[in-house]
């Protein structure tokens, strides 16, 4: 299906597992147990969802990743889809559906509700019927499921409530229609997500800024990747004391900015940009100074 024929609100549709989706899951450096818990939650629904659907506390197949920007929520969500698809591959392919929540709000009274209802009741079940397993990723879900108790009356509170009601109804009906579907939602502002939506989540996982140990691992990973391209950097990549020193200077940054800081060391001097093999420890130190990062 080409982008021109994608249903309203759907911005990506992929068959998994696929080699070009490899990488994000393995490259993410997160606290121990994080990936296993995410993967276990997804696999339980993908594999056992139909059998669990009769339980009084049956899973909704909803995973919520909450945390500040740059903590890897979207990368984790997309990587989770590929990792789960690889595990489920012996039983058939997986469809990854990417949804843009900002495509739904409308100034027309009731239109948001109708659009959201179509997504959950028509579009997603139709897509899910094509393959045995489905993973749906919705970034910034707070745009779709606004916390009704704090909805601003400066906007259209009636339509906000109706759209969130449609999400809740859609989640319940989607569970009944597609018990083997997993929906991974991300939010930068969990307090903006409606309480009833959060209560339906099988797992709410908070992503946080990396601590110093994790930063050191990210530094090591980044330097190793550079050394694979320019072998003269291997001694820097293998210098444990240097990695620890750099990690201290990068405290408080998210993983993305840590990697960009290491990459940015190649731009400290023009001769290094032209020949990265000339990178030095001092270049790395300069790149990790807060006044240099800006």
Automatic annotation (TrEMBL):
GO terms for cellular component: chromosome. InterPro entries: AAA+_ATPase, ATPase_AAA_core, ATPase_AAA_CS, P-loop_NTPase, Pch2-like. PROSITE patterns: AAA (PS00674). SMART domains: AAA. Signal peptide: none annotated. GO terms for molecular function: ATP binding; ATP hydrolysis activity. Pfam families: AAA (PF00004). It comes from the Bacteria. Keywords: ATP-binding, Nucleotide-binding. Residues 59-211 form the AAA+ ATPase domain. Belongs to the AAA ATPase family. This is AAA family ATPase.
């Amino acid at each position: 299906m080409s982008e021109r024929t994608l249903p309203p609100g759907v911005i990506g549709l992929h068959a998994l597992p696929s080699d070009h989706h490899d990488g994000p899951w393995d490259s993410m450096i997160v606290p121990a147990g994080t990936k296993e818990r995410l993967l276990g939650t997804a696999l339980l629904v993908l594999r056992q969802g139909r059998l669990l659907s009769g339980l009084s506390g049956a899973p909704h197949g909803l995973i919520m990743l909450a945390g500040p920007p740059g903590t890897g929520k979207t990368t984790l969500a997309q990587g989770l889809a590929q990792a789960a698809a690889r595990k489920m591959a012996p039983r058939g392919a997986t469809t990854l559906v990417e949804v843009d929540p900002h495509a739904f709000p409308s100034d027309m009274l009731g239109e948001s509700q109708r659009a959201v209802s179509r997504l959950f009741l028509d579009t997603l079940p139709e897509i899910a019927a094509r393959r045995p397993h489905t993973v749906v990723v919705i970034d910034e879900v707070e745009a779709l499921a606004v916390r009704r108790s704090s909805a601003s009356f400066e906007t259209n509170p009636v339509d906000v409530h109706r759209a969130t009601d449609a999400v809740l109804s859609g989640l319940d009906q989607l569970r009944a229609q597609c018990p083997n579907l997993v929906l991974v939602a991300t939010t930068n502002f969990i307090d903006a997500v409606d309480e009833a939506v959060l209560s339906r989540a099988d797992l709410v996982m908070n992503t946080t800024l990396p601590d110093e140990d994790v930063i050191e691992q990210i530094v090591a990973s980044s330097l190793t990747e550079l050394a694979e391209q320019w072998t003269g950097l291997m001694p820097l990549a293998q210098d444990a004391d240097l990695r620890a020193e750099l990690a201290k200077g990068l405290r408080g940054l998210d993983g993305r900015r840590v990697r960009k800081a290491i990459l940015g060391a190649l731009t400290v001097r023009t001769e290094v940009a032209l020949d990265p093999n000339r990178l030095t420890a001092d270049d790395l130190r300069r790149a990790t100074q807060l006044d240099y990062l800006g």
